[in-house]
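Data deposition worksheet. Section B asks for the primary sequence of the deposited chain exactly as it was used as input, without tags or linkers unless they were present during the calculation. Section C holds the resulting structure in token form. Section D is free text for depositor observations; keep each observation to a single sentence. Incomplete worksheets are returned to the depositor.
Section A, Depositor: J.P.
Section B:
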Amino acid sequence: MRILFITATRLGDAVLSTGLLAHLIRHVPDARFTIVCGPVAAGLFQNLPGLERVIVMEKRKHDLHWLDLWKNCIGQKWDLAIDLRGSAITFFLNTRKRLIMRGGRRPGLRVAHLGQVLKLSPPPLPTVWLNDADQTMADQMLPVSGPLIAIGPTANWTGKIWPTDRYLALWAAVSKTLPAARPVIFYGPGQQERMLAQPVLEALPNAIDAGGHFSLTQVAAMLTRCCLYIGNDSGLMHLAAASGTPTLGLFGPSRASEYAPSGPHTAWVVAPGPEGEAPIAGLSVATVAEAANRLLAETHS
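Section C:
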């Protein structure tokens, strides 16, 4: 059975869609998957069971990227085509069945909207597929025997970023619960991400730099070794939750009602004010520390 799976260009949305793939793998074990996604998310699927290929869709003027995709897919007969982008492309492909998720924003959790594509309630949790090389790299990168706490101080726009000068006070509060813990700082590739993470790396004692040049599955493997993740609403936050790491998301002007982290152990805190408009600077260290320590108490033994 050949399945075409068109998912998001943004990392966070692509991570949330992995629950659908996990469901299909369990229920159609002989399925062969072609994944369509943006370049940022492509590495997420490299270890997917049954993967035939990943088509990286680069945005082009006049929506020509959809024509490129059609050319890539028209020669194949598909048993199922799932389009999470809400496009019309599957109507122009040879497929026995098509499922199209309506585009645009609407109230409610994004992961629940994704579940509705396959009529699944509750929706399946996101996941990450790791291989032995990912695990070996994580063992080498994080050979620490004591507890590790992951911190994600970056995001794709400044409005989502909790002030970096608060992490020292946050660490002082959280490390009272785990005095032997060591911080691990995660961030994406590129100079801007590095600049956002640098003040936190410099402020926190004995911090481990785990950002900038790792693949998504390597990052996920490192996250599985952490007993807690604290970070802004971002693709990295969703990756941490999907990895099974207890995850605390920090929300300001983005909407937790739509993009709260989804995983086996998750929590989130929201800055005071109208949803979608609250400045994240209004989120206090005390509020974040209380939620972090509560999540630690629930999950760390």
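Section D:
The chain has a mean pLDDT of 96.
Residues 11-27 form the longest helix (17 residues).
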